[in-house]
Write a structure and sequence with these properties.
Length: about 475
């Protein structure tokens, strides 16, 4: 009889782990405290004027195709279509607006600082290149523990290059807040800058991949073969070791017995559910930092169709041409609106404005839903990088495994999915995707090096050579 694995958390990390384990012949029990799977990759049903509905993503809306090698392999395996999406940003300030077209007064005002920014990007790329392998593909997973830029905040390095805090607050934060789901970015390490600039260049729009349809289909197809073992609205409250197995209990008093446990939820929830956490579990999981610990801007959002949230002189242009609108008021507070209906292929022709506003300061009508972010997003900080590197010493100990954002360098969708695959591999499931893309295989191997001790990982080999790999240069300037 095969082992039964309990997976706590129904985001892409937990579902990825469950999918991989089930394909390998394990019995799985998947627990999600919310009413639906998906984590931050939510699907929302918008009412249309004709009485029908249209589905769209809300928070995770697109991805950089030149970096998401494994996630795109997953979508191909599931038969989910991929299309491209223009990514552009509109920033409104008390002094005017900035919209990446090279023509605004704000862009002219910061022209000399944009040139300094280019020099900063080149400098960081050169330093990073010194510490990384010379022959490498575009990847989120290249990481050197010896690079000093891991420890130097990007903000302070930018200041050293003559870039003002005004530029940081007016240009950098309003554009990248949507990627980081926070406005508190002064602790972001400088090492990440070339990656950011390749995904979301500050001066020009980019392009990203997105689903043909909504993200719900990904989770439905991944769990179709074990849907009767998916437990939504099951908030796990305790995981107890009993007679060599684990008893998982939820808030309603329901209990399930499993052989091993994979935690794919936030660190605080893991710590609360453990019966007798060790000193190392308390030290690491108790100190993981999430954006809502330091910045409440993105902790709540409103799903609505009220276009008055956008400035009247630019309203129609924003609704048709921009994905993200950020507004800075006189006090420096930032309000951010995702314009879901602007260019998303599944919603752009439906004729209904589809908006998601964070940190709303205006009275809104046509509100569909007010939501508190139930899955905290990890911050990109030195403290979390240290925690990430130390979690490997917990992996598999006592039959418990970990995946999700606190086990990755940053909380991207491909990173979280990959963490689930690595946790499943640590349990015993082989790499579940085709091995004919060496870049995807290399990313998986690198994720193993990040998450697992040397004795617990096994390097896998691609089925084709690197010289036969798909070219990456054509997508070099794609957006987040």
């Amino acid at each position: 009889m095969s082992e039964t694995i309990g997976i706590v958390g129904g985001g892409i990390a937990g579902v990825g782990a469950a999918w991989s384990l089930h394909r390998a012949g394990y019995q799985v029990e998947l627990f999600e405290k919310g009413p639906a799977l998906g984590g931050n990759a939510k699907t929302f049903r918008w009412p249309l004027k004709d009485g029908g509905h249209a589905e769209s993503p809300l928070l995770v809306v697109a991805w950089p195709q030149m970096y998401y090698h494994n996630y795109e392999l997953l979508l191909k395996e599931l038969g989910v279509g991929i299309t491209t999406l223009p990514i552009s940003y509109f920033v409104q300030t008390p002094d005017g607006h900035f919209c990446q077209d090279g023509q605004t007064a704000i862009q002219a005002r910061f022209a000399h600082e944009f040139r300094r920014w280019e020099k900063l990007v080149a400098f960081v790329a050169k330093v990073n290149g010194f510490f990384l392998p010379k022959k490498r593909h575009d990847s989120l997973y290249h990481f050197s523990y010896f690079n000093p830029l891991n420890f130097i905040p990007l903000y302070w390095l930018a200041r050293a290059f003559g870039i003002s805090s005004d530029f940081w607050n007016t240009i950098f934060v309003p554009i990248h807040c949507a990627s980081f789901i926070t406005t508190s970015m002064r602790g972001v390490p400088a090492v990440i800058l070339p990656l950011l600039e390749s995904i979301v260049p500050l001066e020009e729009p980019g392009r990203m991949g997105t689903w043909v349809g909504a993200p719900r289909q990904v989770f439905d197809r991944m769990t179709a073969s074990f849907s009767d073992h998916v437990h939504t609205s099951h908030e796990v409250t305790s995981v107890k070791r009993r007679e060599g197995r684990f008893v998982i209990e939820d808030k309603e008093g329901r209990s399930y017995t499993v052989d091993k446990v994979v935690f794919a939820c936030d660190a605080a929830s893991v710590l609360r559910s453990l019966e007798s956490p060790s000193w190392l579990q308390r030290a690491l999981l108790g100190n993981a930092e999430y954006v809502d610990d330091v910045d409440p801007t993105f902790s709540r959002f409103v799903v609505h169709s009220d276009t008055t949230v956008l400035p009247e002189p630019h309203r129609e242009r924003i609704l048709s041409d921009f994905n993200t609108y950020s507004e800075i008021d006189e006090s420096g507070s930032l309000e951010c609106t995702f314009v879901i209906s602007a260019q998303n292929p599944s919603t752009k022709d439906e004729g209904v404005p589809m908006l998601v506003t964070f940190n709303s300061t205006k009275p809104l009508s046509e509100v569909q839903k007010r939501i508190e972010l139930p899955h905290p997003t990890h911050t990109m900080s030195f403290r979390n990088l240290i925690i990430m590197t130390m979690v490997r010493f917990l992996q598999g100990k006592g039959g418990i495994y970990y995946c999700g954002t606190f086990t990755t360098p940053e909380g991207g969708h491909d990173l979280s999915f990959m963490s689930g695959l690595v946790a499943a591999k640590a349990v015993g499931a082989p790499y579940p995707l085709p091995r004919d893309n060496p870049h995807a295989v290399a990313d998986f191997n690198q994720m193993q090096r990040i998450m697992l001790r040397s004795g617990a990982r096994e390097t896998i080999r691609p089925s084709i050579s690197a010289k036969d790999a798909p070219a990456q240069g054509a997508t070099r300037r794609a957006g987040v």
